[in-house]
Predict the 3D structure of the following.
Amino acid sequence: METACEPIAPDAIGPLELLVIQPTPFCNLDCSYCYLPDRTNTRRMPLDILEHVFQWVFSSGLAREPFTLLWHAGEPLVVPITWYEAAASLLLRYGEGQPPLIQSVQTNATLINEQWCDFFRRHEIEVGVSVDGPAFLHDRHRRTRQGRGTLDGVLRGIRLLNQQEIPFKVITVLTSEALDYPDELFDFYCEHGIHSVAFNPEEVEGPHTASSLQGEDMPGRFRHFLARFLELALLADPPLEVREFEISAAALLHSRRSGPSRRTQENRPFGILNVDYEGNFSTYSPELLGLDSPSYGGFALGHVASDRLEDVLASEKFRRLEADIAHGVGLCHTSCRYFPFCGGGPPGNKYFENGTFVSTETLYCRMHMKACLDVTADWLERHPPAPVAPPPLERSAP
Amino acid sequence: MMLLSRCRLGVAPRFHLAPDWAARLSLGAGVQESDGHFFPRGPWRPLTADELTSLTSVSEGCGEGWLFQIPAHLSAAWWELLARSAEAAGSGLQGFEDFSRQIAEYLGFKGMEPPPSLQMEAVVTAAGRCSLRSDPETGVPTGLGPSLAPWATCPLPPGGAVPRLWGLVNLGDEESRLVLIPIAVEAMMAGPDSPPGQLPPANVGELVERFLREYPDCPPIRLRLASGEGFRLPPGGLILDVDATDKSEADVLLLINEQPTAEDGRENS
């Protein structure tokens, strides 16, 4: 059901919002739900390739607005600090006169030490830590290659971040068993000085071909979980920040004021740029990079050293991808009442679950979008936000 | 006497709790009567492997006693409530109703289905006392008793809609020790017939008294509850008490009572 479309002009795509760079595919852990096919590969991105990445990005015309550079995909902290120091120098050189960017890193925290804390602080790097809660939840899936639990190591890293006053956010992957434990998760976050959390429902992605959340009763259980968790988190003193609530509330309130949203960062071409350690790049969902498809071949669209954006946009592969993804977004638009708040489902999830981009609902939609929006709407109805006072029409008399 | 295992113990579904039954349970020798009241009798010993299997394996059709645990934030809410009440000296436990509601919501989320007509009370047993219950006039400990209202008529009304202790939670910092004879009221009623010339027991209290007098070697079980841990009683009830003799601090238990309404009785009949 794939389609084709006309070439797209470079200024009609982007702007770049998220640049995901994979310093290495290697991860020191072996989580059961990981989607990375190549996580035992210990190779590292050569600095000359990284230089090409920055040259490519800043000459592409995509960096028109401030964006985030995320070091991710593999455990980024297995690469030494000296590599990131060199990366920072390259950024200084190539980023001069460009829109500002925020650097962030998503880590399992097991390798965090004082030197890393110092590095994060000096370069104002935002830190995201992946932790799934108490040991009986976390160690069930987040293990070493020898099968040992990793929570102790993660908590050592979190303690250090707290001691060094490095702010951080947490991502927790929710599996079906975690849905019974919102109170225990809340206690865990409070006990370990965690003030901001995000829940990623276990997804079907790449080699991870099944999710514990695929049962028919799961959306209901997820809603039940989220409603309970929000009740605890938002009424806590101080409240715990919950990404799903923040995003859903913003979507609900924004949509009410501004109408339907545009396509999302993940389903809009070059809203995200994903670059692997060899310099291959893709756009759309980061999980697609490095994977092959019978319909499209590899999802990589080019290499930073050799392929200009204009050439990629004119390529048959990109045009087919974009046509199919746009078609899928169109189907979302016409068939889903949540579209005004969502902007269309992530193409990666559509492809992995439905076998085609030209499709609509996924597990991600049911959990991350529909359930979160419903639970948030319910919360907002019961706890309406304080009205914002309209600005005075005239300056008051002195 | 053999261990009576009509009701078995387990961990409530959707709770992550290491029961470590061998360390948590001990077995007494029987009961002793004193001034018409019954108290557990030692010596206490660990359960054998067979006894542990018999008492803790879950099987269909048996009433089950379930261990559970309240989360740390609810324990903290309890201590905050106490602190607030101490500041406002003399005006009772301010906020206890809200605390009870939070406990009920939590248990409801966990699928424990607390009764809609529940009442909660916090009961303090002084360190060194051997019983939760006491004579309201003399303050003398009154020992083991049924978890169902002792004045409930025997046989129980259809549907068993009588006030009962649904469960309890250790709100103190120190371990609590429950003393249980895990046999359901219905099972006690199915025991030996009343001797000739003696009327059948009129109520549950009398039934338990007769049972304990008839079986003084019936071994009581001591169940340790760590701080924040709770025990949901088997629906069929059992005989229980609390032993605070070895404690250094007062025992503080949240008792969750089921108080059936007239409608409950009608629905069940």
